[in-house]
Design a protein that fits this description.
By secondary structure, the chain is mainly α. 73% of the residues lie in helices and 0% in strands. Among the domains are: 141 residues, Leucine-rich Repeat Variant, CATH 1.25.10; 83 residues, Leucine-rich Repeat Variant.
Amino acid sequence: MPPTTAGPPIPPLPSNSSSQALLDLIIQIVSLLLLSSLNVRSFVGRWQVLHSKLSTLHSALVEILDSPYWSENPLVQTILPSLLSTLQRLKSLSDQCSDSAFSGGKLHMQSDLDMVSASLSSQLNDLDLLLRSGVLYQSNALVLSQPVPGSNNDDTEFFIRDLFTRLQIGGMEFKKKALESLVQLLNQDEKSARLVAKEGNVGYLIHLLDFNAHPSVREIAASAVSVLSTASDESRRRVFEEGGLGPLLRILETGSIHLREKAAAAVEAITVDPENAWAISAYGGVPVLIEACRSGTPPLQASAVGAIRNVTAVEDIKSSLVEEGAIPVLLQFLISSTTATQEKASMSIAVLAASGEYFRSLIIQELGLQKLLHLIHDSPSSDTIANALRALSSLAVSDSVARILSSSTLFVMKLGELVKHGNLVLQQIAASLIANLSISDGNKRAIGSCVGSLVKLMEMPKPTGVQEVAVGALASLLTVRSNRKELMKDEKSVMRLMQMLDPKNEVVNKTFPLAIVTAVLAGGSNGCRKRLIDAGAYQHLQNLTNKDIAGAKKTLQRLNGNRLRSIFSRTWRE
C-alpha cells in the first residue's frame, strides 16, 4: 500500500499582504485543518479535541470578518500573526499524523500536539474576549478619548471594556498604556470606580500583582488596585471578593517601597469592612502589618497602623496582635509619628485597653499610661485626644491607675478644660472620668469653673449617656462648697436647672435635676436654699411631688428644712 500523502500545501502569504489577506489565509488554513484532522491515522483522540477547537476558531474568525471595524483594531493585528504561526505548525503536525509511514517518536509528537493545542486555546480565549468586548463594532475603538467626569455611563462602560481588552490581550506596551489610562480614570471620581468594579475584569487586574508579571506592569497594576480599593464601597468589595487581599499582603511583605505603600493603602481600605478584616489572619497578615509599622516609610506606617486599627475589632485577631508585639509598636507611635498615625494608633490602643485585663496589664507594662497622658496634652487632634481618654478610662479600672489619675492635678485640669472647651465627644468622655475618679477636694476646686458647662450637658438628649455622666461629674464637684457657690452665682446655670426641673419640660428625665438640687442642698447652706427658692424650685418640686415623681418629695423636704421660715427673713449671704 502506498503511503498516505500530506494534505494540500498552505498557500504563501504575499510580502505586502493586508490584514484582509492575512485573515483570509488563516480562514483557509483552518478549513484545510478541519478536513485533515478527520483523516489522521495517529493520536486520533487528540485530533478530535483539536477539531472541536478549530471549529470554534472558524466561527470566531467568520464573526471577526463580519465586524465592521476589525481591520482598524491594533489588537487584531497582534493576534493574527501569532495565530498564523500556530496554525502552520498544526498543519505540519497534521501532515505527519496523516502519513502512514510516519515513524517519528510518539512521545515527541504527543508533546508537540499538546503545546500547539495549548497555544490554540490561549488564542481562542483572546479572540473570544475581543469579540465579547464589542470593540470591533466601534470605529477606532482603541483610541477612544478618556471620559471626563460626568460622561455618559454607556461611553464610560465601553471605554472600560476596551481598557480591559487591551490589558488582557495586548503586549507589554498595550498593557502599560491601558493601566495608565485605568489609573487616570479611577482617580476621576467615585462613579468611575464603581463602573470599573462592575464592568472590568478585576480578577485579571489582581493577577497582574503576581511577581511573575513584568515589574513596570505590576507597579501600575498596584496603583490601580490601590485606587480601586480606596475609591468606593463597591469597588473595595470587588477587590476583596476577587482575592486581592492575599497578593496585596505579599507585596506589602516583599515588594519595593513604592509598591508596599500602595499595597498598604489598599489593605487598610479593604479591612475597613469587618467582614473582610478577619481574613488578615487567614492570610498570615498580622506579622506583615506589624513589620511594616516597624520598618516602613511614614506613609506606609500610617496605612499599616490603619489596617491594625481595623482588625483590632476582630476578637480572634487581638491575641495575635499582642503575640506579635503590636502593643509596644503602637505605643511608640503615640509619641513619635504624624498626627494621622497617632490617631489610628490611639484608637487601636483604646480598643485593646477595653478588651480585658490581659491587654490592659501589657499596656501599663509598656509605659502606656505615661504615653497616653503625654498625648492628651500635646496632640492637636480632638479625635486622638478622645481615643487617649477612652484608653485611660479603661486603664482606670485598675486601682493603681485610678489613684495616679485622680491625684494628677495636671490631668484633672485638662479634664476641666475639655468639659468647657472641647467638642461634645470630648466633653462626654471628660465628664465620665470626673464622675468616676476619686478626685481630691483641692483638684475639684481647681476645675470648679466647668460646672456651668456640665449643666448645659445635662440638657443634651444625645449622644446617649451624656446626661448621666454630666450629672455624675456635677454631683461629684458639688461636694465642694466653693463649687456649689459657683453654680448658684451663675444665673444661666440656675435658669437651666429650673427649666429642667419644670414638669412641663419632658426632654430631661427629672431624676437628673433632682440629683443636682439635692447635691446643692446637701451642704446645708441657707444662701443656696434661698437662691433655689427665689428661682422657682419650690413650686416645681411641689408639682413634681404631686405627680409622684420619684425623689421629688425628699428633695422638697430638704429644701424646706427645719429653718424654712427663717430663710425668707434672711439676706442671701453665701
